[in-house]
Amino acid sequence: MKNPGYSLESPGKKTFKINPGYLFVAPAVIAVALVLLYPLLHTIFLSFFKSSLMSDATEFVGFAQYIELIKDKLFINSLRATFIWTVGSVVFQFLIGIFAALVINQSFIKFKMLFRILIMVPWVLPSIIGVNIWKWAYHPDFGIINHFLISTGIISENISWLSGANTAIISITIVNVWKMFPFVMLMIEAALQSVSNELKEAARMDGANTVRIFFTVTLPHISGTCYTVVLLLTIWTLNAFTFVYALTEGGPAHASEVMSMFIYKFAFQNYDFGMASAASVFLFLITSTFAVFYISILMRRGER
Predict the structure, then answer these.
(1) What percent of the chain has pLDDT above 70?
(2) pTM for this structure?
(3) Residue 6, strand partner residues
(4) How far is 94 from 219, CA to CA, in rounded Å?
(5) How far is residue 145's CA from residue 155's CA, in Å, rounded to a whole number?
(6) What sign does the dihedral 253-258-263-269 (CA atoms) show?
(7) Membrane-spanning regions, if any (predicted)?
(8) What is the per-residue burial (b if ≥16 Cβ within 10 Å, else e) of 83-104?
(9) Contact in structure between 156 and 150 (CB atoms under 8 Å)
(10) 10 Å Cβ neighbour count for 173?
(11) Is residue 90's pLDDT more than 60?
(12) How far apart, in whole angstroms, are the C-alpha atoms of residue 122 and residue 130?
């Protein structure tokens, strides 16, 4: 079947065809180029120049800012914090989300719609409202968390969750898990609807228990959704900023300063746009490398 298009023919010349589909997608392509591609290219360009709000002059420095970042202890610390923040968030978001989906998908659960609505509240709640709720919960003197832990005898004195060097990163990770696990539940529960009950019954007749049915029947059928969810969660968490900024601002002593917070401080507190751009390129490379590696694994699995 020939591709549709407009043909411009003239004697002795080759036929030139214009596919009208290009005209339909052109506005979207131009919008994406302006909104995403241009800022990305400009950031990469700016990372090779020493640029500051304090000075109108820009000086080409090549890879000097990248080398300076690698030697910067605060940048290395932000990489460590980003790793803890991302791995901790994604692992627990996925585990809690899939557990909630499996529970609510059971036939004996009543009032499923009510439970779905209640569980989805953290996800649909504006982030700044959620942050303020958790700030009060984490308050060292009046917070409900310390009150509960002391009442049950788990701790003997109040803990400064958001200002402790060892607890700040854990505290913001908990908030991020609370915020995003409903999204995982929603996606996984939707995928569970496509799992054939006949296959489950056949496996049960062959003597498989509930756990074995999950790993041999259910999980292979929802694996595509699981891979996509993990990829999205990882990309979102790597670039997350709101909870870190609103709860700890990267403190105390840079203990919870993830890369997004590190970039923000260089750009909008130090006004060093060159270094901020170089750090942004680092974050972009980490995110894109993970995405490409992850997608290549999915493609190889699909070919099998």
Answers:
(1) 91
(2) 0.85
(3) 18
(4) 14
(5) 11
(6) negative
(7) 21-41, 83-104, 113-134, 213-238, 273-297
(8) eebbebbbebbbebbbebbeeb
(9) yes
(10) 24
(11) yes
(12) 7
Please name each of the domains of the chain with its CATH number.
6-46 (no CATH), 64-303 (1.10.3720.10)
Residues whose CB is less than 8 angstroms from the CB of residue 192 and which lie 6 or more positions away in sequence, other chains included: 101, 102, 105, 218, 222
**CA atoms of 226 and 65, how far apart (whole Å):** 38
Q: Which residue has the tokens 């496996």?
A: 203
- The Cβ of residue 243 has, within 10 Å, a number of other Cβ atoms equal to 26
Can you tell me the mean pLDDT for 5-28?
66
Integer Cα distance of 76 and 277 in angstroms: 16
Exposure class string for 6-40: b at 16+ Cβ within 10 A, else e:
eeeeeeeeeeeeeeeeeeeeeeeeeeeeeeeeeee
The whole-angstrom separation of Cα 276 and Cα 42 is 12
For 44, 94, 145, 193, the CA distances from 229, given in Å and listed in that order, are 29, 8, 30, 16
Q: How far apart are the C-alpha atoms of 279 and 69, rounded to whole Å?
A: 7
CB 135 within 8 A of CB 247: yes
Residue 18 main-chain phi, psi, to 5 deg = -115, 115
Q: What is the distance between the alpha carbons of residues 60 and 48, in angstroms, rounded to a whole number?
A: 6
Query: Quick check: bond before 11 cis, omega within 30?
Result: no
Q: Name the token pair of 168.
A: 């700040």
| Tens digits of residue pLDDT in 145-168 | 999 999 999 988 999 999 988 899
